[in-house]
Amino acid sequence: MDLIVKGLQKTSPLKIIVLTIVLLPGYSTLKATQMQSDESGVFQVHVSAGAYGRVETIVSFNAPQDLQTGTYTMISNLGKTIPVQVDAANQGWFIIDRLPAGLSAAFTFNPDPNERSAENYISSETGQSTISWSAGNNKVLSFYHKENTPPDVLDERYKRGGYIHPVYSPSGVILTNHLNPEQHSHHAGIWSAWTNTEFDGRTPDFWNVHRNSGRVDIDTLLDNWQGPVHGGFRSRSQFIDLSAEEPVVALNEHWEVRIYSATSDGKVHIFDLEITQTVNTDKPLYLPEYRYGGIGFRGHEDWDDPEKAFFLTSDGLGRDGHGTRARWAHIGGYTEGKLAGIAILGHPANYRFPQTMRISPGEPFFNFAPTQLGDMSIEVGEPYVARYRYVTHDGEPDADLIDRLWLDYAYPPGVTVTE
Length: 419
Known about the structure:
With 419 residues, the protein is mainly β. It folds into two domains: 3-116, no CATH class; 122-404, Beta-galactosidase, Chain A, domain 5, CATH 2.70.98. The protein is built from one helix and 28 strands. The relative contact order is 0.14.
């Protein structure tokens, strides 16, 4: 394994020399990469792999000075230029190609904005009801920022927004379903709701809209963006208690979704979902023990046939994984004869991690359900936060790859910034 030793020598106000020594078995070479740059605003980002080897790993850092939102570049200690995306929170994002366990790398940041393109640039297209994102020429997902249009056989109760559908595999196979008149019409791609609840002396069910006691509606699309490293959106929805004399908002929910250009040579698409729920009044929302509720996933209608769909958990279980705890779970199947699937990765910061799972015995439905472990509540002044990473692929699931991607998500590389 190559050993990379880095040093930085400042030689003049206008020049930076990044010195790289590469030690290989039997010989060594000395390489200097000289960059013309205004010293003002230049800083270095040091990345340590830690205990795990990193391959196309998403990395973020807090910039040491205020930067405009946009695209910049960094030069690695080996002279490679990579795009860096800075968001509105002054956080920089980039993707490191490969870094073996135990090693580190240094990158010199160029403070001049650079609209550098990328092979898998994340772009979006806004329609009347949805915003759709693509990585390069490949579709990734769509989000309903306005109400959907249910088929005629479904009534007004099924009009809603604030959920993700469709989700695509890298080759374009659709993995999700919604508004299915045959099975669970209220299931909507990737969506959020609680089922068994207690609020201000009532028991609204925000999941089963046909029971007329509660629902979740999109409130507003806060913003959306594109970029060479990630694209995404932020939105707000409301959990409405319909069991009161007049409808009342029990919860406000904030979504943040990031779709990344990291694709492991085109083998996967990756996106993150983080939700934050806060009570809207001075009353908490109680969540008694129940077998499902939270963030749901509904698979393609072809997967309604149990023979065409299958599950796999991080512990190697299938549908018998229901009620067990896992770091990640996978659901896949055959859509029009094509095999594809999606892995749902839980973050260690999630409440009651590793969370228990609701795996349907015969349908393509999955849900990390922390309420399976007992009562919980969302209290005044105490937001509930849940984080998940989604990985889509074609063909059979690769458990080793999913494990590696989960480690990147759960235990990202160490990052330090020096000016």
